[in-house]
Every structure is written in C-alpha cells, then in structure tokens.
Design brief:
Endonuclease, Chain A; 2 domains; nine-stranded mixed beta sheet; 13 helices; 16 strands; about 35% helix; elongated
C-alpha cells in the first residue's frame, strides 16, 4: 500500500523472512537503530553479514538471562553504541519486549516492527509477523518513529557502564546458569524421548527422514572449545573447505561428532556427542566469519583457522550451524560402530549420512536405551542415506 509519503507492506517469515527485509533496508543505509527484547548469536551473525552502518545503536533486554552475552558484545565490536535494559526500580528487564528496527537511508526511513527478536528464529526460522513502513525523511511520520525509538533507548544502560560496575560479568554468569539448567532439562527430555521412541519418531518426519543423521569427523580442539562455550551462545559453527550446500542432514537432524585424536589409532576414534542441525548453512570469507562469530567458530585465533584447514587468507569457507551440543554417556569408538554393522570407510575425510536405524543404534551404544525403529525402508534405493561430504574442522 502506498499513500503519499508512506509505503506499507505486511510480512510473514514463512513468505519473506524478516531477515531478508532487514538486509534490503540496510543496503545503502547510513544508520540502524534497533530495540529488541532478546538477542542471540544466530541473529547478530545474520545481521552482521554486512557491516553495520556508522552511528548505529542497539538497545537489548536482559530479562530472564535469555540474551546471549556474545551477541551483545558482537554488536559493540561491530561499532554500534549498545545499551542494555536491566532490572531497575521503575522497570523489570523482563518487561522490555519491543522488536523495532529503523534503517535511515537518504531521503527515507525504513521501519520494521512486529514479533521478531534479533535471533535466528526471529529473523528467519520462526513463524513471525511484522510490518514494513517506508517513510519520506524528513517528515513528521519519520520523526514519530524516531521518537518511539528514543523512548525505548532511554530504558537502557550503556554497556560500558555495566562493564565498569561489574554488572556485565554478573549477567554473563546469570546467562550461563540459565543455560546449565536448560541443558539438564534437555538431557532429561532427551532420555525420555530416546526410551519412548519419540526422538526417532521426530527424525522420521518427512522434513528430516532423508537426512536424519550424520557422522562428521571433528577436530578435538574444536570439540573441547565448543563444549566450553555452549553455555554462552545458541550456536556452534562447524566449518569446512567445501562451500557446496550441506544436504546430508535435514532440518532437525542429529550431527554426531567423531572426534579424532592425533597419533591415535584410526579405529579408536570415538563419537563423543552430537548436535542438532537447525537447517542453516552459510558461506563466507574466513576473515568475515571471524569478525561475526569469533571464538564461536571453535578456534582461539583467526590464524588457527588457517592453520587447521591449511588455507590461505581470504579463502571462502562453508559453515554448518549447530545447536544444543550433547555429550554421549559413553564414547562410541569406530571399532564398535563397525562391529555393530555401521560402515565407516577409512578413506572418508569428512563424514557420512546415517539411516534412522543407525541413529538409534549409535544412541543406544552411547548409553541411552532407545526404542529401535521398525521402519519399512526396503523400498528405499540402497545407499540412499549414505552421503559423503568433504571437509571438516
């Protein structure tokens, strides 16, 4: 709808993701002002695919410990002036619930508002609704929108002040504590789902059935660092040289981590845990990925990324997004996999896909009582689930 100085478009994520509309609004913008209740690494990583406009500002709520501390720090590192909404005598942080994005462009202001937080789900994966307004600028309508943002901005405390007072480190600990509790809850639910067969049932859905599981060869340093970081952010980033789309797993499939140990015998390498694949795969230059994600790539320094992959600077890499890293109750060595009929050739350099039966068997070998599926897969062509993919950390 267009009316003089105003253009209006409603939106739904499942039709056009909010992330796409936001990226289009930022093309050529000289400023972004955003106010959100929660921010996650999955959201800031997508936002920062392009450099933030100069003089950008972000005010983010810290209610319930749901905001990822690294997400806030990413915004600050990218050059935004950042404020956080904390509990005060006049407002609880949990009461701060806006989702507002203002992109200032030459002669126009783009306003996106709705239900989408600065998270991967809010920008793309969830069922979200939003409104897009394009307003002439300067104009009274644009002034009204900026005034709305300023009122939200006033609720925030500068991040530098929180760091100086020690309150930021206190929040980081609160966020870690919440994730620890969530992780224990997930483990209890996972055990229940494994024993009742519900986990395998979910993997048998049409969306996931042709890619329910994958065994990926995983660098031990990557695995150790991701375990240390999993209580800070909602994503872990598994990188590889191959930039072709990762099609071995369906959305919601399980990515099993076969951890290699230098100098050890090949058959003693073990599956030590697994992650869930949210269906997000991206490519980017190593330097840009480091700018956006830092240590969440599973390396301490950018040079470690080059050394581990043996690639030159400016190399484009593929990145598989993963969620909810879980350690198995007991590691499952390759020798044990092979003894139980799960083939894993010595010349596989990245990994291979798994059938539903193989997923259930690995979970059982890893210490969980699993209701093995009774599926009619005889009609499937042989090897349909066996998908080798090159490259790994």
């Amino acid at each position: 709808m267009e009316n003089g100085n105003l253009r209006y478009r409603p939106g739904l994520n499942q039709v056009v993701p909010l992330g796409d509309r936001l990226a289009a609004a930022l093309d050529g913008a000289h400023r972004l002002d955003l106010a959100v209740a929660y921010a996650k690494v999955s959201g800031t990583g997508e936002l920062l695919r392009t450099a933030l406009p100069r003089s950008s500002r972000a005010v983010v709520g810290l209610g319930f410990g749901l905001t990822d501390p690294p997400a806030v720090e990413q915004l600050s590192t990218a050059g935004a002036e950042v404020r956080c909404v904390v509990d005060s005598q006049v407002l609880a942080a949990s009461q701060f619930h806006p989702k507002l994005y203002l992109a200032s462009r030459q002669h126009s202001l783009v306003v996106l508002s709705g239900s989408g937080n600065l998270t991967g789900g809010g920008l793309r994966g969830n069922v979200e609704q939003y409104e897009e307004l394009r307003l002439a600028d300067p104009s009274p309508l644009a002034d009204d929108q900026r005034g709305r943002f300023e009122q939200l901005w006033d609720h925030g405390v500068p991040l530098r002040d929180l760091r100086r007072s020690g309150d930021w480190e206190e929040y980081r600990q609160r966020a870690r504590d919440r994730r620890l509790l969530e992780r224990e809850d997930r483990r209890r639910v996972l055990r229940l789902d494994r024993t009742t067969g519900r986990l395998i049932g979910r993997l048998a859905r049409a969306e996931t059935r042709r890619g329910p599981g994958y065994v990926g060869i995983t660098n031990p340093d990557w695995w150790a660092l991701q375990l240390a970081l999993r209580d800070q952010a909602d994503r872990a980033l598994f990188w590889r040289k191959n930039v072709n789309n990762f099609s071995a797993l369906g959305r919601g499939g399980l990515f099993f981590h076969l951890v290699k140990h230098p100098g050890g015998q090949e058959e003693l390498r073990s599956i030590e845990g697994f992650s869930t694949y949210p269906g997000v795969f991206e490519t980017g230059e190593a330097e840009d990925l480091w700018r956006r994600y830092g240590r969440l790539l599973g390396v301490e320094r950018l040079q470690d990324l080059y050394d581990r992959l043996d690639v030159e600077p400016r190399r484009t890499l593929g990145v598989i997004h993963l969620e909810d890293l879980v350690e198995l109750d007991r590691p499952v060595p390759l020798a044990e996999l092979r003894a139980n009929g799960i083939r894993f050739a010595r010349n596989i350099v990245s990994g291979r896909g798994l059938t539903l039966e193989e997923v259930a068997l690995i979970l059982e070998l890893g210490g969980g009582e699993v209701e093995a599926p009774r599926l009619s897969l005889a009609a499937e062509p042989p090897g349909r689930y066996l998908l080798d993919r090159p490259g790994s950390p």
